[in-house]
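Example: BlaI/MecI/CopY family transcriptional regulator.
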Amino acid sequence: MRKKHDTSLLTEVELEFMTVVWDLGGGTVRDILAELNKVQERAYTSVATVLKIMEQKGFLTSERKDRSLVYRPAVPKAEYQKTSLKNLSSKLFNGAPAALVARLVDDEDVTDEMLEEMRALLEERLGDNAN
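Written out as C-alpha coordinates, the predicted fold is:
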Protein backbone atom coordinates (compact mmCIF):
# COMPACT_ATOMS: atom_id res chain seq x y z
CA MET A 1 0.00 0.00 0.00
CA ARG A 2 1.53 3.28 -1.13
CA LYS A 3 1.19 6.31 1.11
CA LYS A 4 0.93 9.91 -0.02
CA HIS A 5 4.40 11.48 0.05
CA ASP A 6 4.88 13.97 2.85
CA THR A 7 6.92 16.87 1.49
CA SER A 8 8.51 17.53 4.87
CA LEU A 9 12.17 16.89 5.43
CA LEU A 10 13.54 13.98 7.40
CA THR A 11 14.59 14.49 11.00
CA GLU A 12 18.26 13.92 11.82
CA VAL A 13 17.56 10.38 13.06
CA GLU A 14 15.33 9.60 10.08
CA LEU A 15 18.03 10.83 7.70
CA GLU A 16 20.52 8.51 9.39
CA PHE A 17 18.12 5.59 8.87
CA MET A 18 17.29 6.66 5.30
CA THR A 19 20.99 6.81 4.41
CA VAL A 20 21.34 3.19 5.52
CA VAL A 21 18.27 2.17 3.48
CA TRP A 22 19.62 4.00 0.40
CA ASP A 23 23.03 2.32 0.85
CA LEU A 24 21.48 -1.15 1.29
CA GLY A 25 18.81 -0.62 -1.35
CA GLY A 26 16.35 -1.92 1.24
CA GLY A 27 16.16 -4.44 4.01
CA THR A 28 14.39 -5.83 7.03
CA VAL A 29 14.44 -4.17 10.43
CA ARG A 30 17.24 -6.58 11.40
CA ASP A 31 19.30 -5.66 8.30
CA ILE A 32 18.94 -1.95 8.98
CA LEU A 33 19.54 -2.40 12.71
CA ALA A 34 22.79 -4.27 12.01
CA GLU A 35 24.10 -1.36 9.93
CA LEU A 36 22.97 1.30 12.40
CA ASN A 37 24.55 -0.60 15.31
CA LYS A 38 27.97 -0.30 13.64
CA VAL A 39 27.83 3.39 14.62
CA GLN A 40 25.56 3.47 17.68
CA GLU A 41 23.69 0.74 19.53
CA ARG A 42 19.93 0.86 18.91
CA ALA A 43 17.00 -1.20 20.14
CA TYR A 44 15.10 -3.34 17.62
CA THR A 45 11.74 -1.84 18.65
CA SER A 46 13.04 1.73 18.27
CA VAL A 47 14.31 1.03 14.76
CA ALA A 48 11.04 -0.69 13.81
CA THR A 49 9.05 2.31 15.10
CA VAL A 50 11.12 4.88 13.20
CA LEU A 51 10.91 2.85 9.98
CA LYS A 52 7.11 2.61 10.33
CA ILE A 53 6.89 6.40 10.82
CA MET A 54 9.08 6.97 7.76
CA GLU A 55 6.78 4.70 5.76
CA GLN A 56 3.75 6.68 6.96
CA LYS A 57 5.49 9.89 5.88
CA GLY A 58 6.02 8.41 2.41
CA PHE A 59 9.81 8.07 2.48
CA LEU A 60 9.77 4.25 2.59
CA THR A 61 7.62 1.46 1.24
CA SER A 62 7.36 -2.01 2.75
CA GLU A 63 6.31 -5.44 1.66
CA ARG A 64 5.95 -8.60 3.67
CA LYS A 65 8.45 -11.32 2.84
CA ASP A 66 8.06 -14.47 4.88
CA ARG A 67 7.55 -13.16 8.43
CA SER A 68 9.42 -9.87 8.01
CA LEU A 69 8.74 -6.50 6.44
CA VAL A 70 11.24 -5.42 3.82
CA TYR A 71 11.62 -1.63 3.64
CA ARG A 72 12.70 0.10 0.44
CA PRO A 73 13.26 3.78 -0.39
CA ALA A 74 10.17 5.46 -1.86
CA VAL A 75 12.21 8.60 -2.55
CA PRO A 76 15.48 8.40 -4.51
CA LYS A 77 18.49 9.90 -2.75
CA ALA A 78 19.12 12.45 -5.55
CA GLU A 79 15.51 13.66 -5.34
CA TYR A 80 15.77 14.12 -1.58
CA GLN A 81 19.09 15.95 -1.93
CA LYS A 82 17.52 18.32 -4.45
CA THR A 83 14.52 18.98 -2.18
CA SER A 84 16.75 19.53 0.85
CA LEU A 85 19.01 21.98 -0.96
CA LYS A 86 16.03 23.93 -2.31
CA ASN A 87 14.63 24.09 1.21
CA LEU A 88 17.98 25.22 2.64
CA SER A 89 18.41 27.82 -0.10
CA SER A 90 14.90 29.13 0.45
CA LYS A 91 14.99 29.29 4.24
CA LEU A 92 18.58 30.28 4.95
CA PHE A 93 19.72 32.08 1.79
CA ASN A 94 16.51 33.90 0.76
CA GLY A 95 16.06 31.65 -2.25
CA ALA A 96 19.38 32.70 -3.76
CA PRO A 97 21.42 29.64 -4.74
CA ALA A 98 24.43 31.89 -5.46
CA ALA A 99 24.48 32.94 -1.79
CA LEU A 100 24.52 29.27 -0.76
CA VAL A 101 27.42 28.57 -3.13
CA ALA A 102 29.26 31.70 -1.97
CA ARG A 103 29.02 30.55 1.66
CA LEU A 104 30.25 27.09 0.67
CA VAL A 105 33.19 28.51 -1.29
CA ASP A 106 34.15 30.75 1.66
CA ASP A 107 34.38 27.74 3.96
CA GLU A 108 37.98 27.28 5.07
CA ASP A 109 37.58 23.48 4.93
CA VAL A 110 36.98 23.59 1.17
CA THR A 111 40.25 22.67 -0.52
CA ASP A 112 41.59 23.99 -3.81
CA GLU A 113 40.92 20.55 -5.26
CA MET A 114 37.26 20.77 -4.21
CA LEU A 115 37.02 24.25 -5.74
CA GLU A 116 38.45 22.92 -9.00
CA GLU A 117 35.81 20.15 -8.99
CA MET A 118 33.11 22.79 -8.48
CA ARG A 119 34.54 24.90 -11.31
CA ALA A 120 34.52 21.88 -13.64
CA LEU A 121 30.88 21.15 -12.75
CA LEU A 122 29.87 24.77 -13.34
CA GLU A 123 31.73 24.93 -16.65
CA GLU A 124 30.10 21.69 -17.76
CA ARG A 125 26.65 23.00 -16.84
CA LEU A 126 27.24 26.37 -18.50
CA GLY A 127 28.53 24.59 -21.59
CA ASP A 128 25.35 22.48 -21.72
CA ASN A 129 23.18 25.61 -21.60
CA ALA A 130 25.14 27.29 -24.41
CA ASN A 131 24.04 24.61 -26.88
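The radius of gyration is 18 Å.
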